[in-house]
Amino acid sequence: MTIDPRRLGRRQWLGWRRRPAVAALLLAVLAAAAPVGAADLSDLVKQALEERRERDGSAPRPGREEVAHNWDAFLTAIIKRAGRDAPPGALRDQLLGVLIEERHRVVAMLTDATIDGPELMRSMFESSWEQLSPLLHEVATQLPEHTARRYGQFIEAGELMRAAERLGVARDLAGSPESLRKLAEILLGEEGDDPLRYDTTVDPELRRIFGFGEPLESPATSPLLGPGESKPDARLDAASPFAALANWLVPQAWASPQPAGDRSMLVARLNTWIPGRKQEVREYVPLVHDMLRLTVDDALGSSVVEEDATAAKVYPNLVIATAWQESCWRQFVRSDEGVQPLVSPAGSVGLMQINGRVWRGLYDPAGLEGDIGYNGRAGAEILWHYLRDFALPAGEHLGPGGADNLARATYAAYNGGPGHLSRYRKAKTSAHLQVIDKEFWRKYEVVRAGDQAPMFTCYPTAR
Fold this sequence. Notes:
This protein folds into two domains: 5-192, no CATH class; 223-462, no CATH class.
């Protein structure tokens, strides 16, 4: 249902007000009854907002971060509820896809300092609603009548808010925490958590609803990030003869792939190591590969169902090529302040460059920043999700290029969000993104061929 604000008159406005749930939203959000003589929605909304401004006085507009947090919390609460009500499968994947896509958009918009809070909210509301409302309609068709009615009232109220946005007044509606809470209450009810509560802890229910299973094992933060830790190489004291001997012996002992039970030992070693010499890099990179291959084995488990077999063949090389592309194998870097997690301008961190804002509720931010093993598991899990639940059902492997297209499509989604899945094969993709995708494909082919020599050249100390 799409509302044309130019065709809305007093009768339809009053019709909405007679519906209890919608009326509750309108009375709280607009804070006024419709004036008898008003001719259309524009007049009614504008007059109500003027009255609200007079009542609220000179309350400051919310800033960009507050707007972004409020909208993300609201959208997450709605999508989580819809995911709980939807049957497992494609519909849940699409709901999660909307959430992740919109979070990617928020991250991109927050890097643009020219966008203020109200403009950020207008853009997020319009984009999210365009994708979300059809999915909510679909969820509602599979629910009992009394539950479906709540979805219908929520959608109707959201359409009203959208119409107000198109009249140029949505920054006073969708941007208001009060209005978002009232809108959420139509679907969620008044009980439970605040729908605008922005929490960065892992949400086990969110993971289970959308097919990620139980939370990953608790991370072990690297000692390199401890207070006052700023040695060039925190693994050892260069003055210690024993440490020097260990540095000579241990890399050789780790040169071959380790059995699955030794992944924790690999992680512990890598968490205390930033290679400082070319020879160290040549010892370090194969160990990162070993850790990632063991991570892949854990992710796939002991058996792969038949429909996932094609994806499983692509997956190991995909994970390693992604780590190469995203970070050149690095979890940590040295700075003037000491050892820090590798962080991109957009806030993505670590080996797999995972953005904590995009994946909020699914992964522990401290683990993503401070544990190469946790970061690797999270990145591998995200790649498997995009590969199995997006690229494979979309039939990317059925066109020219075959199964290799699954790797290209999955990386495109990993890099930009679900909406980027097919960008690698579209002529209209921006030149910037084409360069990224071509560089990933070059790396993937190298990994698939088993040629390790080019894998060392990107590491700063290996040049």
